[in-house]
TrEMBL record:
Membrane topology: Multi-pass membrane protein
One protein family per Pfam: SNF
Subcellular location field: Membrane
Keywords noted in UniProt: Membrane, Transmembrane, Transmembrane helix, Transport
PROSITE patterns named in the record: NA_NEUROTRAN_SYMP_3 (PS50267)
InterPro entries xrefs: Na/ntran_symport, SNS_sf
PANTHER family to which the protein is assigned, alphabetical: TRANSPORTER
Name the UniProt record assigns to this protein: Na+-dependent transporter, SNF family
Organism this protein belongs to: Algoriphagus winogradskyi
TM annotation in the entry: 12-29, 41-61, 89-110, 150-172, 184-202, 237-262, 282-306, 328-351, 372-394, 400-424, 445-464
Length: 514
C-alpha cells in the first residue's frame, strides 16, 4: 500500500477546503427551491432542527472516522470502516462512500460546466438583446444539445469535458492544489454573493416588471423568513429538510471522511468541524436565500416564484433579469452569479474526486496523477449518458438515487458503526482528542440515540410515502380500513415502476407569462 501520506498545509487551509467542500451548488440552487416548495418560513424550523440533530452529529462522526482512518494510513471508507470493527462486511458498506461521490460528481460537474459557459456568455453579452423567452429557450436548447452554440455541435459535451479536465488537473496536484483553489474561490464566492445579496435586500419594488406591477423583493424575503408552525407535523417538509441538510453539508457521502483522513493525529476536530459546518449554514441561510428568490420576486412577484420555483430559474430567468439592470451592472451581476456558482461548484466537485483517489491509493498504491485521471475517466463514463439523454429526465431519477437515497442509507449505517459497533465511549474520546472546544455532553446521547432514530424515521417515511404525500389522509385510511396507498414518489413505488419527470420549464414560449 502506498502510504506516503499527504496532509493539509495549515488550519486555515483545512477549514477553507472543508467549507469549500460543503458550500456548493446546493446552497444557491437547491436550498432556495426546497425552501419555496416547502412553504418558505414553514421549511426553516425543521431545517434548523435537522441541522442540530442530524447535521452536526454526522459532521462529528465523519470527521472522527476520517481522522481515525488517516492515523492508520487509510484514506477511503472501505478501508477506514473495515479498521473500525471486526466484522468484514463493513468494508463493502464503505464502497458507498466512493461510489456515491463518483455518481454525483458526474452530473454535478455538468451543472458546473453550465455555470462556466454562462460566465463566458455574460462576458460576450449574449443575453443583452434577448427576450425572456429567448433566454429561457437558449438554456433548453443548450441542455438538449440542439442549439447552435457558436456553431459548434455538441458544445455542452465539450465544455463538460473541459471542466472535468480542470478538476482532474487540480486533483493531480494534490491537497495543496485543492487548498489553493479554496483560498481563492471561497473569498471570491462570498464577495460575489454579498454583491448580489445586497441587491436582493435593497431592491424592493423598484424593478417590478410592467406585467407584474405588484412585484416586490421583500415579499420573497418575508415569505422565507416568517416562521409557520403548522408545518411541524408534516413529514413531507421534514423529509425535504433532512435531505437538504445532508446534501448541503456533504454528509453521507464519504468525502468528509476522506478530507479528514489527511488531518494530523491530534488535530482539533470539534472546532474545525463546527466552523466549516456553520460557514456552510451561514452562506446558505444568508446568501442562498437572499439572491434568487428576492430578485425573482422583485421583478415577477412572489406568486410567480412560488409557481415556477425550480432548478431552471438560475439559468432560464436570472440572465434576463440581470440585463434589466442595465449594461454595466447587469454584466457585473451576471458574472457575480455564474462566477459564484462556478467557485461553489468546483470546490465541491474536487471534494467528490478525492475518495476515489484515496481508494486507489489504499488499494493499489496509485499516485495522484493516475488517481485523478482514472477518476476523470470514470466520471465521464457515468456522466455522458445523463448528458446525452438529458431531455428524457434521466437526470432527476439519477439525482434521486445517487444524491438522496444513498446518502441517508450510508449515513445511518456509519452512525451505527461509530456509536454502537466502534462504541460511543471510544468514539467520544476520539472526537474530543485534541479538541479546542468542549462539546456539550448532550451530544454523546444525541449521537447514540436521537440521530440514528431520526435517520431511521426519514428512511421509513421515504419508503412508504403515501399517495399525494397526504399523511393525515393515509393514517385515517388505515384506521377506517381503506388501506395505505403509496405515492408514486415513495421508494417502494420507485423500485417497482418508474415515472420520469422533467422539472424544467421546457416550453420557452410560456416560460414567462407575459
Ligand atoms: N455540499 C455540496 C453542495 O451543497 C455538495 C456535495 C455533496 C459536495 C457531497 C461534496 C460531497 O452543493
Ligand atoms: Na452546501
Amino acid at each position: 500500500m502506498g502510504k506516503q501520506s499527504d496532509s493539509w498545509g495549515s488550519r486555515t487551509g483545512v477549514i477553507l477546503a472543508m467549507a469549500g467542500n460543503a458550500v456548493g451548488l446546493g446552497n444557491f440552487l437547491r436550498f432556495p427551491v426546497q425552501a419555496v416548495q416547502n412553504g418558505g418560513g414553514a421549511f426553516i424550523i425543521p431545517y434548523l432542527v435537522c441541522f442540530v440533530l442530524m447535521g452536526i452529529p454526522l459532521l462529528f462522526t465523519e470527521w472522527s472516522i476520517g481522522r481515525f482512518g488517516g492515523r492508520h494510513g487509510n484514506h477511503s471508507t472501505p478501508y477506514i470502516l473495515d479498521s473500525m470493527s471486526r466484522s468484514s462486511w463493513w468494508k463493502y458498506i464503505g464502497v458507498f462512500g466512493i461510489f456515491t461521490n463518483v455518481a454525483v460528481v458526474a452530473y454535478y460537474t455538468y451543472i458546473e460546466s453550465w455555470t462556466f459557459i454562462y460566465v463566458i456568455h455574460t462576458l460576450l453579452g449574449t443575453f443583452t438583446q434577448m427576450s425572456q423567452a429567448d433566454v429561457s429557450g437558449f438554456f433548453v436548447h443548450y441542455v438538449n444539445l440542439s442549439g447552435s452554440n457558436f456553431g459548434i455541435p455538441f458544445l455542452p459535451v465539450l465544455v463538460y469535458v473541459l471542466v472535468l479536465g480542470i478538476n482532474i488537473y487540480i486533483l493531480s496536484t494534490g491537497l495543496g492544489g485543492i487548498e489553493k483553489v479554496a483560498k481563492i474561490g471561497m473569498p471570491l464566492l462570498i464577495l460575489f454573493g454579498a454583491v448580489l445579496a445586497f441587491k436582493g435586500w435593497t431592491m424592493g419594488a423598484e424593478n417590478a416588471s410592467p406585467s407584474f406591477p405588484d412585484a416586490n423583493a421583500w415579499d420573497g424575503i418575508n415569505f422565507l423568513w416568517t416562521p409557520q408552525y403548522s408545518s411541524l407535523l408534516d413529514p413531507k417538509v421534514w423529509l425535504a429538510a433532512a435531505g437538504q441538510i445532508f446534501f448541503t453539508l456533504s454528509v453521507g457521502m464519504g468525502s468528509i471522511q476522506c478530507y479528514a483522513s489527511y488531518l494530523k493525529e491530534n488535530e482539533d476536530l470539534a472546532l474545525n468541524s463546527l466552523t466549516s459546518g456553520f460557514t456552510n449554514e451561514l452562506v446558505e441561510i444568508v446568501l442562498g436565500s437572499a439572491i434568487v428568490i428576492p430578485i425573482a420576486a422583485g421583478f415577477l412577484g412572489l406568486d410567480w416564484v412560488i409557481e415556477n420555483a425550480g432548478f431552471g430559474m438560475a439559468f432560464q430567468t436570472m440572465p434576463y433579469l440581470f440585463v434589466q439592470w442595465g449594461e454595466v451592472f447587469g454584466a457585473i451581476a451576471g458574472i457575480c452569479w455564474f462566477g459564484l456558482l462556478f467557485f461553489a461548484g468546483i470546490t465541491s466537485s474536487l471534494a467528490m474526486g478525492t475518495p476515489w483517489m484515496g481508494f486507489m491509493q489504499d488499494e493499489f498504491g496509485w499516485g495522484k496523477a493516475k488517481g485523478a485521471l482514472s477518476f476523470g475517466v470514470l466520471a465521464l463514463v457515468m456522466g455522458l449518458p445523463t448528458i446525452l439523454f438529458y431531455q428524457y429526465g434521466y437526470f432527476d431519477e439519477y439525482d434521486y438515487w445517487a444524491g438522496t437515497v444513498s446518502l441517508v442509507v450510508f449515513a445511518l449505517l456509519e452512525m451505527i458503526l461509530f456509536t454502537w459497533v466502534f462504541g460511543m465511549d471510544k468514539g467520544w474520546s476520539e472526537l474530543n482528542r485534541g479538541a479546542d472546544i468542549r462539546i456539550p455532553v448532550a451530544y454523546k446521547w444525541i449521537m447514540k440515540y436521537i440521530t440514528p432514530i431520526l435517520l431511521l424515521l426519514v428512511l421509513t417515511a421515504a419508503l412508504i410515502t403515501p399517495q399525494g404525500n397526504d399523511w393525515a389522509g393515509a393514517i385515517a385510511g388505515l384506521v377506517n380500513g381503506e388501506g395505505w396507498e403509496l405515492d408514486s414518489g415513495s421508494l417502494i413505488s420507485k423500485v417497482s415502476h418508474e415515472e420520469l419527470k422533467l422539472h424544467l420549464i421546457n416550453d420557452p414560449e410560456n416560460a414567462l407569462l407575459y
